[in-house]
DNA sequence: ACTTGACCTGGAGCCGACTCCAGTTCGTAG
DNA sequence: CTACGAACTGGAGTCGGCTCCAGGTCAAGT
């Protein structure tokens, strides 16, 4: 169905892990590098490039980039050559935020690991005592 | 004011970075290891232990633990000795989630760094060309 | 021809985690 | 004594990011 070059929204949902709802939502929000093509009956036909683009957007989302900023980036790409410095700005800014996020997360991890260690020691010591050592 | 052993909600907000709103919200949600003491006039008086506890909760929140799970953990602590294994379970589960989160974030970071590199190269090559090299 | 399941649209609903509002009270400084 | 900022309560509002609903269309299989 659809020939081997086009994908239905359901197939894209499978391949990306997004729901069909989310896919339509992203489209409405202007998060597709190119207007998605429609087949007869008005059904969306996605290309492999669309899937690749979505996968990158998913990475940006997962790392906390808000939808409006992804839209700005998408618009720059849509406008074509000449605005690479702006795209770079967006990416670098986001990179910095992700870096900070990772630092924070590492701090949290350190605390959690410390607590887990303490509780493990304690629980083990109780267990040992129960066995009569 | 309040003597040197008690802190007002505003002072706790300052020390933790939470808003006074958030502090009342957390209390309502059962995220305080011990019932917060009230002064004359019904005003909350926090202790340093409350602040320490809140700081830990903030770490849990920052790393994505939902409020209801923090509440469960808090309740266990409130119940006192004997449930350390359950506390440990919650912490270990969360630790694992944070680990996965960090892996994901690192993947995102790798992609972003790759793209930043490519755009930097490109932008630099354009700049160099403009200078006539 | 009919059924079934995937798809369409616009708009409403939901969830988590706050955030803010209205109306009131408290307590210290001038 | 008054004025001010900070605190109090319960409940409503906000925001982001989906998720779902109603009501309808389409297309492939039997």
Automatic annotation (TrEMBL), chains A, B:
Record-linked InterPro entries: DNA-bd_dom_put_sf (IPR009061), MerR-type_HTH_dom (IPR000551), MerR_fam (IPR047057)
Domain HTH merR-type positions: 6-76
Keywords: DNA-binding
Molecular function via GO: DNA binding; DNA-binding transcription factor activity
Pfam families: MerR_1
Protein's UniProt name: DNA-binding transcriptional regulator, MerR family
Naturally occurring in which organism (per UniProt): Lentzea jiangxiensis
């Amino acid at each position: 169905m659809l020939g081997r070059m086009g994908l239905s929204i359901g197939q894209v949902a499978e391949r990306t892990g997004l729901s069909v709802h989310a896919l339509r939502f992203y489209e409405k929000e202007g998060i597709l590098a190119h207007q998605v093509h429609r087949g007869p009956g008005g059904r969306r036909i996605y290309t492999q490039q669309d899937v690749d683009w979505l996968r990158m957007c998913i990475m940006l989302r997962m790392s906390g980039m808000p939808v409006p900023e992804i839209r700005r980036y998408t618009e720059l790409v849509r406008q074509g050559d000449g605005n690479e410095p702006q795209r770079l700005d967006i990416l670098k800014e986001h990179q910095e935020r992700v870096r900070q996020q990772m630092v924070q997360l590492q701090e949290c991890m350190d605390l959690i690991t410390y607590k887990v260690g303490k509780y493990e020691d304690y629980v083990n010591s109780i267990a040992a005592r129960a066995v009569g050592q």
